[in-house]
Specification:
alpha/beta; Rossmann fold; five-stranded parallel sheet
Length: 201
């Protein structure tokens, strides 16, 4: 290898190192900003909305949605992303709630299999029911992407309230100190970036 070739090779390695360092710095900065979007405390439990929307896929979400409905913080409850074959009675039983007075106010959506699908399915239901404000119930780490997807789909005049739940395995505060929670947050960060990129399509 000639001296000139070695010099070119060293220069190329340095350039690649700089590019990788810059990309990592951008990724880390974005992760930090994403982390600021993850709620660390329970929401205001007094503000009412026309409807409560529960995004299935995690423990505690349906039970929290039913509790909010029972407390009168929404007139209707919509559960998006329900498995086929699950009806209201089964849902109430799973959530350990007594069937009866809440059943008339609950609707189930079976079409969604991801967060974008939840937003689209919910938007259709809201138009049919003339809903103008909604309280979204999902896990804290899932909330940033959920809000992003819903804002892509819903009209600007729709009021959206975030109502995070805090599942076991993802602490409300200092979650970055737990390796499993940090890994989950990084996975959600990547999904958030993809949702942001695909939002205009």
């Amino acid at each position: 290898m000639t001296r000139r070739s070695r010099h070119r090779r060293v220069s190329l390695v340095r350039l690649l190192s700089m590019v990788v360092s810059m990309l990592f710095a951008m990724w880390a900065t974005g992760l930090y900003q994403f982390a600021q979007l993850i709620p660390e405390s329970p929401p205001d439990g007094k503000q009412r909305a026309d409807a409560i929307v529960v995004l299935t896929g995690g423990v505690g979400r349906v039970g929290e949605g039913l509790s909010l409905l029972e407390r009168g913080l929404g007139k209707k409850l919509f559960v998006s992303g329900v498995y086929r074959g699950v009806d209201v009675q089964k849902l109430l039983k799973v959530a350990q709630q007594a069937p009866g007075n809440l059943e008339c106010c609950i609707s189930l959506g079976y079409a969604a299999d991801n967060t974008r699908g939840n937003a689209i399915e919910t938007a259709k239901w809201m138009r049919a029911k003339d809903i103008n404000s909604v309280r979204i119930v999902t896990a804290s780490y899932h909330m940033p992407r959920s809000l992003l997807e819903f804002r892509w789909v819903l009209p600007d005049n729709i009021k959206i309230l975030a109502h995070p739940v805090f599942p076991d395995g993802f602490p409300a505060k200092n979650w970055w100190r737990d390796f499993s929670a940090l890994r989950l947050a990084i996975s959600e960060y990547h999904k958030y970036l993809f949702a942001w990129f695909m939002g205009g399509f």
